[in-house]
Write a structure and sequence with these properties.
The complex is a heterotrimer. Chain A is an alpha+beta fold. Chain A has five helices and twelve strands. Chain A has helices at 43-49, 96-99, 103-106, 122-126, 132-148, and strands spanning 5-10, 13-18, 22-23, 28-33, 36-41, 52-56, 63-64, 69-75, 79-83, 88-93, 115-119, 130-131. The longest helix of chain A is centred in the C-terminal third of the chain and has 17 residues, at 132-148. Chain A is globular and about 40 Å long. Chain B starts with a strand and ends with a helix. The chains are: A alpha+beta, B alpha/beta, C alpha/beta.
């Protein structure tokens, strides 16, 4: 078992959760790093929505509220609203995603990061998020619900 | 003898992209010059079918992959041939985000519009590669 | 509680062949099984992705029973599966199945016609029957 990752396999899909990240119920993750908070989407979400074709994101300097909209992500199946798990000011948007939006699918917790935020109150916002151990069973329930939809 | 153009779709059955690539290739083969443009089954390369291998090695190959996994391109390269052009359906979709297919195989009107757009692009790529060959 | 969702499922591996109408028929018949006839018992293995080395496809095919569905006697799906993961539990060849039942193969590889629906039904039902045999369902 990978020390950094929790994972579970259903059929041919392995769902991964980074242990050191925090998770919002709308399937985005947040990680504090050097005074900023990095935000992306969960492995579960990218598997459900399919191959990302493009993202429409706010620019650097945009103000975000915790739980507020922070752009959209479009796949051939659907359009997903991205939610910010943290309030603050966008410092940087992942420019790699313009040419390679599929990074969100291939590496949702690494190279597929979406934006970095200078948080107004990260400690307070983090209380509204789930750690990996709390998020994992909720993810499994969602997997069960997806499989039962067929 | 002039080289043929061999069009190879990934044809993945898990997503609509596979069907879009497949249909676009059928349109390109049918609409253009069927004696000069052809397709074959990708999996024949895996089973070392001699005719399929000769076809790709002696002619110009364009792969049409659904997504960035690039299965068709990789399968051709594993068979020892570098593709002359690699296209991805997802790149066409990026410029036509309103055209979402209705199903994986039953593409519906928007899906077939994407097919036509991709077939036209294939036609342009074919013309370009043929000019280079001359 | 979630163990029921880690049940044994059967991997369906169609050939997807482009050259003949039977390849198109495999796609429609397999999707009928996956989406309608046995949606909770089956998973599709994408043959190009499987051949290209995707871990998810290959690990599933090694761990769970598979049914290959080939359009013609070249048996690309069956041979690829045997080479990459192991012998499938059942191998269906559509050209043979249609001949046994006196059905004509599709004339077009681009689109199936109304008259081809009987062939889709036949192949889909055969796959579903084999799934039931593997899972020992009634």
């Amino acid at each position: 078992m990978n020390e950094e990752v929790m994972e579970v396999t259903y059929d041919k899909f392995t769902f991964r959760v980074r242990k050191d990240y925090w998770y919002h119920p709308e399937e985005c993750w947040a990680k504090g790093s050097g005074g900023l908070v990095i935000v992306g989407v969960s492995d579960f979400l990218q598997k459900v929505v399919g191959d990302v074709a493009f993202l429409e994101l706010p620019e650097a300097g945009a103000e975000l509220t915790p739980g507020g909209e922070a752009g959209t992500m479009e796949t051939i199946k659907t359009t997903v609203s991205l939610i910010s798990p943290v309030g603050g000011t966008i410092q940087e948007v992942n420019g790699e995603l313009d040419e390679n939006p599929q990074l969100v699918n291939t590496d949702p917790y690494g190279a597929g990061w979406i934006f970095k935020v200078a948080p107004r109150n990260w400690e307070a916002d983090r209380k509204g998020l789930l750690n990996a151990e709390a998020y994992f069973p909720k993810m499994e329930e969602k997997i069960k619900a997806e499989m039962a939809k067929k | 003898m002039a080289k043929k153009i061999v069009l190879l779709p990934c044809s993945g059955i898990g997503k609509a992209y596979g069907e879009i690539g497949r249909q676009a290739i059928y349109e390109a083969v049918g609409d253009h010059r069927p004696a000069e443009i052809t397709t074959t089954c990708l999996a024949k390369l895996m089973i070392d079918d001699p005719e399929a291998k000769q076809l790709i090695h002696e002619n110009i190959v364009i792969t049409v992959d659904g997504c960035a996994r690039d299965c068709a391109r990789k399968n051709v390269e594993t068979a020892g041939k570098k593709v002359d052009k690699a296209l991805r359906v997802i790149e066409i979709f990026k410029d036509h985000r309103d055209l979402k297919p209705e199903g994986v195989l039953e593409l519906g009107e928007p899906g077939f519009k994407l097919v036509h757009i991709l077939a036209e692009k294939l036609g342009r790529e074919i013309d370009c590669l043929e000019r280079k060959e001359q | 509680m979630l163990e029921e969702f880690k049940q044994v499922k059967v991997g369906i591996i169609p050939c997807n062949g482009e050259e003949i109408g039977e390849g198109t028929l495999t796609r429609f018949a397999c999707r009928r099984v996956l989406d309608t006839l046995r949606p909770h018992d089956t998973v599709t293995i994408c043959l190009p992705l499987f051949i290209a080395g995707d871990k998810g496809e290959r690990n599933f095919a090694k761990a769970f029973p598979t049914i290959t569905v080939d359009g013609c006697e070249k048996r690309c799906s069956q041979k690829s599966t045997e080479r990459l993961s192991g012998r499938p539990k059942h191998a269906i060849v559509i050209s043979e199945l249609l001949k046994e039942h006196g059905l004509e193969p599709p004339q077009s590889r681009q689109a199936l016609e109304e008259k081809d629906q009987a062939a889709v039904d036949l192949v889909a039902e055969e796959i579903a029957r084999k799934v039931d045999e593997i899972l020992e369902k009634g």
